[in-house]
């Protein structure tokens, strides 16, 4: 679990422009990885669903883009 917390800290410390580019071009993988680092069972299930459905049919991708741009935490399955 310490490795997941360390990875989550690394992901959170990325500059916002890098995070935005990753969300725009690879949100299916990036969103799944970010949710996987939550470390609990719900995070793992949501990460798998995120990856399989393409960010919940890209609705989640749009929310992730808005979240990165506004720098506010929107709790949508995260």
Succession of helices and strands: HHHH
Approximate strand percentage: under 5%
Largest sheet: none
For the residues shown, what is the average pLDDT?
Answer: 83
Q: Low-confidence stretches at least 5 residues in length (pLDDT < 50)?
A: none
Q: Count the E strands.
A: 0
What characteristic shape results from the CA principal axes? globular
Q: Structural class, from secondary structure content?
A: mainly alpha
The portion of residues assigned to helices is: over 70%
Count of DSSP H/I helices: 4
How far apart the termini lie comes to 17 Å
Radius of gyration: 12 Å
How does this structure look, described?
- With 78 residues, this protein is mostly helical.
- The protein contains four helices and no strands.
- It has helices at 2-12, 16-36, 41-57, 59-70.
- It is globular.
- 19% of the residues are buried.
Short characterization:
This protein is an all-alpha fold.
């Amino acid at each position: 679990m310490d490795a997941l917390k360390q990875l989550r800290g690394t992901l959170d410390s990325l500059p916002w422009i890098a995070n935005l580019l990753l969300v725009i071009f690879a949100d299916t993988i990036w969103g799944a990885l970010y949710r996987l680092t939550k470390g609990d069972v719900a995070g793992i299930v949501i990460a798998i669903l995120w990856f399989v459905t393409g960010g919940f049919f890209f609705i989640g991708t749009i929310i992730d883009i808005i979240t990165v741009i506004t720098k506010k935490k929107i709790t949508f399955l995260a």
